[in-house]
Amino acid sequence: MGHRNFRLYFAGQAVSILGTWVQQVALSWLVYRLTGSVALLGITTFAALLPQLLVGPLAGAWVDRHDKRRLLIAVQGLLALQALLLALLTASDNMGPVLIVAMSALLGVLNAFDTPLRQSLINSFVGSKADLPNALALNAMLFNIGRFVGPPLAGLLVGLTSEAMCFAINAASFLALLTGLLLIRADAPPRAKGSTGDVFREGVAYAWNTYPVRLLIVALAAINLTASSYAVLLPVFAKDVFGGDAATLGWLWGAAGCGAFASTVFLATRKHLAGLVSVLLLGAGLSALALLVFSFNRGFALALAAMLVLGFGISVCNVGINMLLQSLAPDTLRGRIVSFFTATRFGFDAIGGLLAGLLAAMIGAPATLFVEGLLLALFTTWFVRLRTRLSNEVSRETEAQP
């Protein structure tokens, strides 16, 4: 927080993220209220996240060749327009399943550019490689504070006003980050040279040939294919299992956000990158356990506790892997490595959400989460065997960085 540019970014991002979570919960509730379809919940999430997998890697190569701050300003403006259009369509009672999926897909395409832009610019905002892991942890902390505060707030706002108002609030929230970005004065990060195709292939070769990067991306895929799919099914648990409403959904989501916030506070205190490997194993194990407990529990208090543990475990894995990948990546490759991270993080979240929605339509939401928990437990058992080599490789690679 001693860096002026990072403070400006941090303040704007805080407001923007809160608005994003308000919109996400309101949209999830709107889908289930209008259609009652658990499969459509999965399809909507899939449409919003799939572009991260398909477009994200190429977006990372493209942004590495351009002025990232100017691009981020443009993308933030487009995201504000998307949220405003969503609000207008909902307020005029023109939202239906097709439009919901289309608007979610548009959001996904914009996020495929927004996420690698924001993440790869953090290093230039702090101006010190030594401060980068802590800056990333603080950035993730903001996301998780929003995740803790935003869902209960969205549940309250939906009850008092409407989903359209939540979308309008999100549209206004982008102005805060836009203002911060316009006030920032920093040298542009170095640009990659060559065609987008050449730049993309260079990034793929680095990720594939660097053992810790390759293994960390595999772990990222596993955690998001299984544990992260809980979010798609939360409206089902809130309404059908616990007999609640949008406020119930908000509390469940907020409990997961509370755990995720605690994980970023925990990660911000880590001093040695190699030690994060053991932390990742802890996070994966806790996530598997929380899924198994939550799946067939019918007590709301225990459900909130399980959500808190699940949020902690998933966030420890996602944020810890991001910290490791960005610390390992050279400056000229950072946009591409971040795009591979976001493509895997959100792309496999999309696939997992779609599969969870379809499976829940056949065997029910509780049984679906039980299966996800078992699969993650099996992966964690396998990953334990690779811990020593991965820790050693991370230490070697980071010591070799200038």
* CATH architecture annotation name: Up-down Bundle
Rg result: 20 Å
Give a short account of the largest sheet: none
Structural class: mainly alpha
GO cellular component, one term: plasma membrane
Main location: membrane
Transmembrane segments: 7-32, 38-59, 71-89, 95-113, 134-158, 164-184, 215-238, 250-268, 273-294, 300-325, 337-363, 369-386
Protein name: MFS transporter
Write structural notes for this entry.
It contains 16 helices and no strands. It has 402 residues and is an all-alpha fold. The protein has one domain: MFS general substrate transporter like domains (Growth Hormone, Chain: A, Up-down Bundle), CATH 1.20.1250. GO terms for molecular function: transmembrane transporter activity. It is a multi-pass membrane protein. The chain crosses the membrane at residues 7-32, 38-59, 71-89, 95-113, 134-158, 164-184, 215-238, 250-268, 273-294, 300-325, 337-363, 369-386. It is found in: Cell membrane.
Concise structural overview:
InterPro entries: MFS_dom, MFS_trans_sf, TM_effector. With 402 residues, this protein is mainly alpha-helical.
